[in-house]
Amino acid sequence: MHRFPAVVALAATVLCAACTDNPAKPTPTVAPSSAPSAAPADDYSAWQAGRSTPVADKLYPEHGNSKIDILGYDLELDWQPPKKLLTGTATIRLRPVAAATEISLDFANLTVDKVTVDGAPATGTLAGQKLTVPATLIADQPVTLVVDYHGTPKQVSYPSHRGDAKEGVGLRPAKNGGLWTMQEPWGAMTWYPANELVSDKALYDIAVTVPAGWAAAASGTPGPVEGNTYRYTSAVPVAAYLTTLAVDKYQKITQTGPHGLPLTYWVLPKTDAKLVPSLKKSPEILTWLEQKLGTYPFETAGALMNGSISAMETQQMLSMGRSLKWDPAFFEETLVHEYAHQWFGDAVTPSTWTDLWLNEGFAQYMQFLWEQKVQKFSDAQLEVFLRQRDAELRKTVGPPGKPKAANFAESNVYLCGAAMLKELNDALGDAKFFALMRAWVAEHQGTNQDRASFIAFVKTNTGKDFSQLINAWLDSPKTPK
């Protein structure tokens, strides 16, 4: 999740910034292509690991398509800094969940050049933030959609009063010709046609070609650099909001984490120099998290620095905004938070945005425990702080289990969720609580979960019914006693 100073410090306060959504104007229909692209492979077995059960999101029904399950995205991208021009080809393997007469995906602010479905020319219509392609879809019979497109990316807005809402979400050019994105709860649609459902995880292959002297960093496992083309693969399914891309005149730094885990950092040599020592504490942070949560759930880790005023848990490659004017301690606390999300949010992801507390409450609680380790404050002090802030946030924003569409990812889902977990931790003791957390991730990795499944899991694994405690902390308008 985006991290903003007001959310992470013990003295956190809710900041407000007005934000409205401005959908893109309709774009004329793209005529059928005269020459079909290469025919897709008939064998989709290699993409079955990307199979999901899409769930329509009640908070944001205008985004995503629950009738389609994306199995895999293959993105071939080219970025030209002087022109601020992105050119892309998205090859999308998708499984129709039900019979339909069209493919509808989220896509914004770019121009579609050509569309094919299973190699045959097709039309593509852009209206608002949707790309619609007529197609005869049969349930569970996969098809391949190929979309060629170009343009200058532009971010879109999202509904929140957070301080970082003013910068919007999605891919955007930097003043120096670079490129970067932050994109929760949506924003992937600003650089490729995407199914912006948190419940639709998919496999990814991302290739980005840049001029000499520039480098491209993206989510996933770094692959070979071929000339000026940088490649990344996500062999573990990823929700669209957890993908990332950045282009800059980066320096690449590599390091080894616990049990030989490859770590990669992308920094600007002069601008980011003061943060490199903190980035290099990643092995220590990850070792501490593994002691609590179990083995890190992916094959690589790392972080890229970009121009944001926030930070985000993009899968296998954290997105850390350099515009926050970090001090080392706060930067390291945020690294803990975003790395903790690799377990809570990335490996195990909510089914809908209503259960965002499953991401943020867990990551925030781990951050507080790290701060407690470093700053040496007591459990009693943490309890007093949590209850005071919890009461303030429930009054101003509401309980974390009943988020409002206009208040996406505000402080209540972080801090109130963390307060609930502390109560559960106190009730179980450290040994049983962290055994529970390790089992939660180990048993549900790669899936989407919700409140009901968490409550049932806790009961099954502890032999006790904690539903009253969990529901009270998620739903009560006042801090539970």
TrEMBL record:
InterPro entries linked to this entry: Aminopeptidase_N-like_N_sf (IPR042097), Peptidase_M1 (IPR001930), Peptidase_M1_aminopeptidases (IPR050344), Peptidase_M1_dom (IPR014782), Peptidase_M4/M1_CTD_sf (IPR027268)
EC number of the protein: 3.4.11.2
GO BP terms in the entry: proteolysis
CDD domains named in the record: M1_APN_like (cd09603)
Family: Belongs to the peptidase M1 family.
Keywords assigned: Aminopeptidase, Hydrolase, Metal-binding, Metalloprotease, Protease, Signal, Zinc
Domain Peptidase M1 membrane alanine aminopeptidase: 300-473
Superkingdom as given in the UniProt entry: Bacteria
Names of required cofactors: Zn(2+)
PANTHER family: AMINOPEPTIDASE N, PROTEASE M1 ZINC METALLOPROTEASE
Catalytic activity: Release of an N-terminal amino acid, Xaa-|-Yaa- from a peptide, amide or arylamide. Xaa is preferably Ala, but may be most amino acids including Pro (slow action). When a terminal hydrophobic residue is followed by a prolyl residue, the two may be released as an intact Xaa-Pro dipeptide
Signal peptide: 1-17
Protein name according to UniProt: Aminopeptidase N
